[in-house]
Amino acid sequence: MEETAIGFHYESDTEILLAEICKLQMKFGNDPEMTFPRILTIALGIVPGSASIVGAMIDHNKNIFFFGARKQGNRPLFMGKLRDETMSGRESVVFASEDYMMDEFGITEVEEVPPCTLVFVDNRGVLQNYKIPSHSDTGLRHCIFELFYFAHPLTSFRGARISRLRMSFGKYLYEQYKDRLGHVEVVLGVPESGLHAALGFAHASKLPLEHGIVRNHHMGRSFMGENMSEREFRANEKYFVDASVVQDKHVCLVDDSLVRAITAKLLAQKLRKYKPKSITFLVASPPIRHANLYGIDIQDDGTIAAKDGSIEELKSRLGYDGLHYLDLDNARKAIADHLPLDREKVLHDNTFFDTCTFTGEYWHREQMSPFLAVEAAEPPLCLSSTSNLVD
Hints:
The protein is α/β, with parallel strands linked by helices. 30% of the residues lie in helices and 21% in strands. The protein has helices at 13-28, 36-46, 144-150, 162-177, 195-205, 228-236, 243-246, 262-272, 311-318, 328-336, 343-348, 356-359, 368-373; strands at residues 52-58, 64-70, 78-84, 90-96, 108-112, 117-121, 127-131, 142-143, 156-157, 160-161, 186-189, 209-210, 213-215, 239-241, 250-255, 278-283, 322-325, 353-354, 382-384.
């Protein structure tokens, strides 16, 4: 786009989408059939990316429209209805990336927006659904890393609660390594995101789960810091250890994932101060070895802990007596146990989940050629004008 004299002011991917919309408006500006929903649908098909998008626009007649678009299925998007009792029962349409808060606000008819779909809502509350071109045959590719870490534990995925999935990851983690753990006496979860996996591990192993690590809730995510020194500072201030839980014990520490291992290394140092007999670190996800390009924003800046070298070397570098990961096959089994889907599809269909963080397989590279041809496609048809979405 820059080569065609389009200037950009920021580094937002949304600005690329806006530029494409402007190009299409100039191209089809005199065509009465090319309404803004149709132009937006074509633009979403042209611009590569995995995001779900929610926005609003005002047309020339000052009518306000809202929309939610789920491009690939890689990122989640839900919608529901909210009835305002003070305005004669008028219904509003609500979009959200997660569904767990909707019940709290009295939002009903909650459903997942299907992949490759644009939902357009006018100021009368009428819904229109458009099919985003070029995406229909690429599979769901839902980001599997959301299930391990990024999604809120009360969010649902295909009818399953994320908290139950993470407990299942912990259960399979125990089954995978139960013969190699030695004399573990106490299980600790790394708060907050590692607690459900630790609970599943403790239930399966029948070992006591103790709150031996307490999080400082005034600190944010340590792995999202601007640089290494900032990440280390955040991690160091993030946790406190209860000495009475770990002293003279064989400790098993369970976390949901391991990215740059800053927190893992500092936790080992903090725990060692209170002289445990041993510390085994268990990770309830496969080893993260690659950047995530699809919204999680894990960059390969040379600090991904498991990118190079063996797990044994990483264990020594972090200061643990044992280090073990849940493998991808067992992770899929844990997911298959909870999803109301074909088990074989979950276990073996590589287009159902995006696993690039673990495997380095980036699905967007398969799609670049189709994207380049989208602009010449016919305008998308409106799939429906009802309040019911069709997957």
